[in-house]
Amino acid sequence: MRKMLDNQQGIIKKISASGQIGKRIREMGLVPETPIQIRGRAPLKDPVAVKVRDFVLTLRNDEASHITVEVDAAEGDQE
Amino acid sequence: MDKGITIALAGNPNSGKTTVFNAMTGARQHIANYPGVTVEKKTGKIEHKGRIINVVDLPGTYSLTAYSIEEIVARDFLINERPDVVINIVDGSNLDRNLYLTAQIRELGVPVVVALNMMDVAESRGMAVAWEDLSELLEAPVVPIVARSKTGIQDLLDKAVEVAEGARLWRPAVISYGSDIDRSLDEIEALIDGSAVYDRKYPSRWRALKCIEGDKQMLSLLKRDPVADARIEEIRNTTTKHIMDTLGEEPEAIITDHRYGYVAAITRKTLKHRIESRLDLSDKIDKVLTDRFFGPIIMMGIFYAIYAFTFWASEEPTGWFDAFFGYAKELVRASMPPGVLQSLIVSGIIDGVGGVLGFVPLIMCMFFSIAILEDSGYMARMAYMLDRVMRWFGLHGNSVMALIVSGGISGGCAVPGVLSTRTLMDPKERIATLLVVPFMNCGAKMPVFAMLTAAFFSMSRTRIMFLLTLLAWGFALLSAKLLRSTILRGPKTPFVMELPPYRLPTFQGLLIHTWERTSQYVKKAGTVILGFSIVLWAAMTFPGLPQQKQTEFEILRAEKMAHFFENPAVGQLLTDEKSFLRLGEIVEALRRASANPERSLDKTIKEDRLFALGAEADGMIRGKAQSGYVRQDLAEAASKYVALLQDLRTIDNDWRHAALSNTVAGRLGRTLEYLTAPLGFDYRVNIALIGGFAAKEVILSTLGTAYSLSESQQELEGSLQERLGKDRLWNPLKAFTLIVFIMLYVPCMATVISIRKETSWAWAGFSLAFNLTAAYLVALLVSLIGNVIGIGT
Q: Where do the domains of chain B lie, and which CATH numbers do they carry?
């Protein structure tokens, strides 16, 4: 997820974090097979804001790198 | 006796839980802490259709695992207190994530009513929720509501009462976690059921589930039955190993995934998206407000706007408060004979408490602005935008909130600031935030800064205050960095946070939020500060001068008086003490009349036989040109009179000076001069700084007292600001050193007590020592550099 561009969409495939961080990420609804869309990044390019289910979540790039996403073929740039 | 029904409100943060609570209870709220932890417990007692209902607002959580203190508190309350019914508030526009908690509540089995909130928002986003179907699938009643407009709250209460009075059976839902985990769950459940040792507080399957999840709290409870525990441990290990081997994940992860699967199955059947997801208003606002370029600029603009609003809106009411306390003092002075008791009431009580309450309007406007930021959802964006910066200094995005409440925009209070560090989950990040929070420019420091800057700097008030605010942030962040890389070294905690949709805050919610924080501030005035200002007053009054010294001054005074009356020109006009006092009255009346031309002189004054003499003396005092027609002896008497006044003033000045130096505070202040001399602070400043430990508000009034107590009555008329501005011993460098010192030195008593409550005495003590050292070193540096580059002369 860390490498994704703004407005890109994709589907979560794997969450490699365990322990507290992994649990927190999952409980906020980032579980495999969930579609997500990158909504933007903070002014200093970190954290990242992600639209997941019906809300917006932010997480740091370090945390985002635990999440593997299969990016949609159509470079989703729908405004 | 009917002890009423207990309803617990559970729900995600931002689900509108607080709005529901406010809508139900209105102003009848009671805030306390859950026993042993620093999580707020809000309760309210209401009457609904003749029934007494106790409403308990559980902390907002996303889950019921033991991830955070809030979750543990919410869970323990449900299990140990066994509320008659739980109302689970669910954000209807964000069903998936909200139902995740609902699923866990259902698994626990406690009787629940689901309040489907924000149905209006859901509708406007093109979502339709089939709530009857939802009710059937969840096996729990569902009531659609719109908490903001209080729609459906009565229906919700009706339903809750109905459930509470019904069977009250705990009927846990059973969710499948895949055959492997399910099998282990069955086995553990049977073991728990079979054991005679375990209590029956928890449903066995839920307990089994927690075992597989590796919940430490639950596992430790199982130790009570060593036989079953050993067996359970074995099952746990084999299950974990098996799951890891086959699925490559921890059982905990699988359980979460399955639970979300269960939720998704429910929402698939009940939620219809009429319009495919598009950018809603909230997203559009975010495009601008969190923009890489405009975001920070707008944020600064908002800070500045709040700052301007706070001072603008609070100016008028602050004046009322000041006028009120001024009037109260006049009243006491007029109705009581001068003496120790009058002094206690005026200088001790009214000045002390009035000083604190005088800031209530300012603090209230500040907290009102902060409540808008919080309730609208902008505060979360600030945390989002500043997290990267905060992290560099070893803090967390959520630290921003505590720093702002404490005075980050200038004019907050560190007491609620310390309390708002509760949102930080990592103890080290939390303590680091706690320790630097007192560096911010709280509302109590502002008046001292305002006075000093007005006296010594020509820059506009707004601009210099803005600079001082930036300075405070700089100090706070750098010392956080220092703490986090030394004694509070530790890993960063995750920043996985919801950015709630922007919402227009409700007026009721804003008022309640403002009031909560303001009352924390007012309470401190009522208790800690009242006590301390009395102690302080006593320290500045006792012990009085020894009798011998006292007599010396009296004799000196009497000699001057006698000498005055011996003058033949005076002897002609003034015969006794009484006429001398009368002359004083006339001169005073003339002075007032000249200060306020609209006031005409009293007839009795004008017709007094001493009027001519008084007018002459008044003219001399104010240095007006003498009229050439005055009789020679009159002019001489007047000049003798003015000279006498000056002599007496010098004597009184020395007298008060001697008296203040002799008091406890004076002696302490003098002793401290050894330390503070390099900074340029004399004993009077030291006394004020000692007073500031009670509360920073006291610094200004103590400085005022220290100066007015040691200077004559005449000069007291000029404000402290003018007096310091004229004082030879003061200069801009000294003023700036003092500002820096006040900004950094000890947190006030109330803050220290709050820090202790949130952590321990050790940390509270550390906080004192740390701040004092930092303040001393930085102020010393400022003073040295200033002297080297030569501003101080």
A: 5-165 (3.40.50.300), 179-273 (1.10.287.1770), 294-443+488-516 (no CATH), 547-656 (no CATH)
